[in-house]
Automatic annotation (TrEMBL):
Needed cofactors: heme
Transmembrane segments: none
Domain of life: Eukaryota
Entry similarity comment: Belongs to the cytochrome P450 family.
Name listed for the protein in its UniProt record: Uncharacterized protein
Entry keyword annotation includes Transmembrane: no
Keywords (A to Z) from UniProt: Endoplasmic reticulum, Heme, Iron, Membrane, Metal-binding, Microsome, Monooxygenase, Oxidoreductase, Signal
GO biological process, one term: xenobiotic metabolic process
Topology in the lipid bilayer: Peripheral membrane protein
Length: 495
């Protein structure tokens, strides 16, 4: 009876298929699975469980239920979150290579198209980053070191602040000029006068962009780019600003191409153009015009807004804590005096000031969840399985505000970085620049700028608030990709 044996075969096939499927699912189960996390809804994922006004805080709340390694879904995409020093160190430092990918950040990928240093991956990232670090180092060893450039610029800032004639002023623009001009001198070998329209426009772009990317709207854009991209909203302003910046960069590159001397590079763009020339016959070369534009944009953006926002927030904290400011000024008088400018060598003799600069960075927590990482291969992490190309969010807040390492982390207290005898005390938990292979390429420059700009300002001025320090609110106005300080005014009273 043929049909009976046919039925038997079908039953066997079905049983076999079930067994195969079962074994496959147990295999993937044996291989392990993603870390636990709140149950995602279809399409929207965990969006409704997260407070987009403060993602960092929402993630900390989830740790209570799911531990230091958990999964959240931004839209349909699973993202593994690392919370607390142990998990962050294990991933970014102990297993640096596996966690060295850059995760997808739609708002940035739209702009960088995986060129440059910050949002590229693989060979392009390795080569561009290595090349950029070498050039920045070369330029720091030249006749005019980077420290010289920062000192000159800090003195220009002092002159500009004197011209405010003790009137109340919002310092945002002038504080942006210093890091912007330092980067300009490295990339284009020229600085701008503070009244130059081009500089004013550039710095306004930076401020606006940093504010926009820190809003809840951009978090939503990153979760649902294919929908939100076509809606009206602040992302359109952001892309328009960035087009303006790129146009400016392209003009500069064209000027450089016309006056390029292959044997005599003047600045970053020249070095890059020479490298492009050397590799022009290689199809595989990562040194292309697109990569140059985005790399310069990266250096520019990363090198301007982060430093100027940190200083702007820092001055607000110093207004709020006049007792801290007085101690810094005392140390400046003692170590530097009035007749020369502070320099980096002074830092080791100024533990209190050093502690204040560190505490400003720790307290403000500028980039709370870092930029997204991505695992470069399938990995086993603790008892979990994380497949290649999974996005990883690193809570820097959880490290910088760790209560065991920094008692009362919500208080601004330079004592967090001082030992009993008042010496500067290093901490492994100090990670405002991230850590591992993706650590900020400009960390050395940024730390130099923060120290020299703050000491120059306090060497020359008393900071006078417009309200009682007790009434100064230092709560950020936005807390998204970045932490945006409230705007404020103060008077700079020459000493």
């Amino acid at each position: 009876t043929q049909s009976a044996s046919m039925d038997l075969i079908i039953i066997l096939v079905i049983c076999l298929s079930c067994l195969i499927l079962l074994s496959l699912s147990t295999q993937s189960y044996a291989k392990g699975k993603l870390p636990p996390g709140p149950t995602p809804l279809p399409i929207v994922g965990n969006i409704l469980q997260l407070n987009f006004k403060n993602i960092s805080k929402s993630l900390s709340a989830l740790t209570k239920d799911y531990g230091p390694v958990f999964t959240v879904h931004f839209g349909m995409k699973p993202t593994v979150v690392l919370h607390g020093y142990e998990a962050v160190k294990e991933a970014l430092i102990d297993r640096a290579e596996e966690f060295s990918g850059r995760g997808v950040l739609p708002v940035a990928d739209k702009v960088s198209q995986s060129y440059g240093i910050v949002f590229s991956n693989g060979e392009k990232w390795k080569q561009t980053r290595r090349f950029s670090l070498v050039i920045l180092r070369n330029m720091g060893m030249g006749k005019k070191t980077i420290e010289d450039r920062v000192q000159e610029e800090a003195l220009c800032l002092v002159e500009a602040l004197k011209k405010t004639n003790e009137f109340p002023c919002d310092p945002s623009f002038l504080l942006g000029c210093v890091p912007c001009n330092v980067i300009c001198s490295i990339i284009f070998q020229n600085r701008f006068d503070y009244s130059d329209e081009k500089l004013v426009t550039l710095i306004n772009y930076f401020h606006e962009n940093f504010s926009i990317v820190s809003t809840p709207w951009i978090q939503l854009y990153n979760a649902f780019p294919s929908v939100i991209h076509y809606l009206p909203g602040s992302h359109n302003k952001l892309f328009k600003n960035i087009d303006g910046q790129k146009k400016f960069i392209l003009e500069k590159i064209q000027e450089h191409q016309e006056s390029l001397d292959l044997n005599n590079p003047r600045d970053f763009i020249d070095y890059f153009l020479i490298k492009m020339e050397q590799e022009k016959h290689s199809k595989q070369s990562e040194f292309t015009m697109d990569n140059l534009v985005t790399t310069v944009w990266d250096l520019f953006t990363a090198g301007t807004e982060t430093t100027s926002t940190t200083i702007r927030y820092g001055l607000l904290l110093l207004l709020k804590h006049p007792e801290v400011t007085a101690k810094v000024r005392e140390e400046i008088d003692l170590v530097v005096g009035r007749h020369r400018s502070p320099c980096m060598q002074d830092r080791s003799s100024m533990p209190y000031t050093d502690a204040v600069v560190h505490e400003i960075q720790r307290y403000i927590d500028l980039i709370p969840t870092n930029l997204p990482h991505m695992v470069t291969q399938d990995i086993q992490f603790r008892e979990y399985f994380i497949p290649k190309d999974t996005s990883v969010l690193v809570s820097l807040t959880s490290v910088l505000h760790d209560a065991k390492e920094f008692p009362n982390p919500e208080q601004f207290d330079p004592g967090h970085f001082l030992d009993k005898s008042g010496n500067f005390k290093k901490s492994n938990y100090f990670m405002p620049f991230s850590a591992g292979k993706r650590v900020c390429a400009g960390e050395g420059l940024a730390r130099m700028e923060l120290f020299l700009i703050l000491t120059n300002i306090l060497q020359h001025f008393t900071l006078k608030p417009l309200v009682d320090p007790k009434d100064i609110d230092t709560t950020p106005v936005d807390n998204g990709l970045g932490t945006v300080p409230p705007s404020y005014k103060l008077c700079f009273i020459p000493v």
